[in-house]
Amino acid sequence: MNVPENISTAMLKRPLSVAKRYLLLIFAWCCLAMGIIGVFVPGLPTTVFILMAGWAAAKSSPRFSHWLESHKLFGPMLRNWRETRSVSRKAKWSATVTMLLCAVILFFTAPQLWIAEVISLVMAVVLAWLWMRPEPK
What we know:
Elements: H1 9-12, H2 18-40, H3 46-60, H4 62-70, H5 74-84, H6 89-109, H7 113-132
Helix pairs in contact: 2-3, 3-4, 3-5, 4-5, 6-7
């Protein structure tokens, strides 16, 4: 398909339906809420939830997306991800410490050992993915 140089490929995509935009916006707000809760609750990966909120906001609400990217706490994280697909070392260590703490608590409090093992395995997979991301320059 021959496309004039002044038209971006984003302009060629069909716009999302109103229902899809609202669903993505609700998803973005839920991810933001989970990310904020994750700041205080060990085991919830704040970084991952904020990145998902940024993705969904960018697809559904330019105003909400702009607010997230302008936020003093979430903005740098989202800009690093958008520009270089990178996650700061501080965010990686924060996620690691909170997930390790959560795993320890789980092993002492889970009613069945396998529950703690499965949840810890999921957290380990998330951490492995997170640590494989490059760090911003």
